[in-house]
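Hi D.,

Good news: the full-assembly prediction came through. Inputs first.
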Amino acid sequence: MKVLMCGNEVLAEASIMAGCRFYAGYPITPQNELPAYMSRRMPEVGGVFIQAESELAAINMVFGASLRGVRAMTSSSSPGISLKQEGISYLAGCELPAVIVNMMRGGPGLGNIAPSQSDYFQATRGGGHGDYRQIVLAPASLQEIVELTMYSFDLADRYRTPVMILGDGILGQMMEPVVLNPESRSSKPGIKKDWILDGCKNRAPRVIKSLFLGEGELERLNQRLQLKYRKIAEEETRSEVLYGDDSTIILVAYGTMSRVSRNVVEGLRKQGKKIGMLRPISLWPFPEKELKILSEKVDKFLVVEMSCGQMVEDVKLGIECKRPVHFYGRSGGGLPTEDEIMRELMTIYSSSLP
Amino acid sequence: MDTIFSKPDSMKDVPTHYCPGCGHGVVHRLICEVVDELGIRESVIGIAPVGCAVIAYDYWDFDVTETAHGRVPAVATGIKRTHPENIVFGYQGDGDLAAIGTAEIIHAANRRENITIVFVNNSLYGMTGGQMAPTTILKQKTATTPLGRDPKREGFPLKVCELLSVLPGVFYAERVALYNPQNVLKAKKAIRKAFQNQIDGSGFSIVEVLSQCPTYLGLSPKDAVKWVEEDMLKEYPLGVFKG
Amino acid sequence: MREDIVFAGFGGQGIMFMGKALSYAAMKKGLFLTWMPSYGAEVRGGTAHSMVIISDSLIASPVVKEPTICAAMNNPSFQKFEAKVKPNGLLIVNRSLVESEPTRKDIDVMEIPATDMAFRLGDPRIANMVVLGALLAKKTILPVESLIDSMKDIIPEGRRGMLSINEEAIKQGYGYGSR
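Then the structure:
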């Protein structure tokens, strides 16, 4: 059955369907509907909701719940996510699962509350310190928020790693019909957690830590993490390709911008123009293989973002700079429209005609 | 033959890395004795801070996690709220609790988290080289107050027990010291009470332990203990502030 | 079919709710739709608006820049949105609260004393439903009956007493709009 809820609420309900039983967060626009929903819903399912005193406290409460074996989540928007970076680094170092939601708004600094995609670097490079990666998933619709939220908890547990769901103010605030179907998950929970701290009854005591002072110890941890990240890259990269076989130009966009780009592509296809699209669903791992395949067949790429150009670097790396990569973006609350993208595309398109 | 003294079961049989005369080893042991006496070793989860005691898990023989600097009370909240059957305690130094983690400790206390905090106040930052702590007393020389702490420049010693005791969420706050055997016994009694309170579900308990850091006080272990008794105590009176 | 709709007014006029009501009815009809609020500090300034797009095909961005239909429930919203309505679009003016006179000649303007009508029905807060009824009389996005049917699903349990007055408001608005 279809329901009408805003993206923040859909995400909250999906997390509960995924078995999330701990949520801590601090209010910030445009994600306030999420903690408000959790404060109502968590007690109903026997879970815990805490409005923390800060983002630092919230992510560390998640750290505590996670090391105790509970599926845990926190959410925020850009400035708050900056504060959570310390905790994310510790989660990665201690190999603890957690889901972090970023409904991006304009920056830098306090910026504004308008939708934005300008935390791409922070999310995909790791805004915290150290040699770590976090999985980053970018839903483009409310239905996909349901699917990816449930998937993110499975990934977090399977790989013992923080996972970020990267949305924006539009996805958080908007409503569109959505089916809340717990069966739609990609995998089932039930991974045995034989590493949690629950009191050393009938077993040797355990320690969760990220401090490794012995010679070579930390390097060994980092090497192990890198192996894990390689496995994630091999097995969990997700993307969607539209008209990959016969396009001369490929649009690359994620999240909200992929919605707008899709309409542009479908519109131009109706006019017989050979335009296609790549939509990264996982931003890390980035769909490099798919891009490389496309670069063999395509003349040019156009990256569209609600930022001054961040993902454009990954596209260039993905195709090893073999083809021209153009960029169109708006930032600070600007939302590229279909017309604007179309104009940009047609300029590039006509210059590539013989 | 009767055994009149032995290593607590909860304590690993290894030498500690602490400097001669440091108070941490004593406080570690007191916690282990209490854990054994209360029979909670299999349900306790300890939280180590950032600071000299960061590797407390090398000495405690039960489940322990490490946290980011100052975030002990937040991590404790996440564990205790999801699994109230575990006995959760945080071990924090003066930098961890009273500087970088001030927000976390006040709000955990104010939320009436049913947790136990052992706060070791040695008046300076040991691990990083003897810098000023929020609890450094006036005129005390440290690596970053070479002329002595001047209230016009560095403000005043932060009194954690006094501060927290006004919060309705705090059930128990006591300051103890380690400068002689009688006080060590009192400290153990206080720590035991702070754990018992949690078992009883009474709410937030904190024990502030005045400790000595001979290395960065620049004193012999004996003189460092004397310094706590004669100088530190003037600023930080012992006793029960709440509960 | 595609309509880009803006409902604008001040807090307390049920601006978000009228968007949700129409969205819900559209969902029941199996149409594509998005709803998007104006959010954050902007809301405190006096005017709030919700944006609804209803279409028979996939909707990209839920942001409405150039509404094909706009309902201005008070004077500041009228002043803010009159210029933004798409040429040949429809501007519904709540004459009870909008003092300004429309200046656009290239759009269809429907004036309706919605708040007065609602007041006569017993509650000025249901001016939003009067306007929705009038809107559906002018534009055949969906049958007015499906909006009326939806009301019982979206009015919260505690306010079921409001059901009949809401229905009546929709009907009167529809009647006014059909003239």
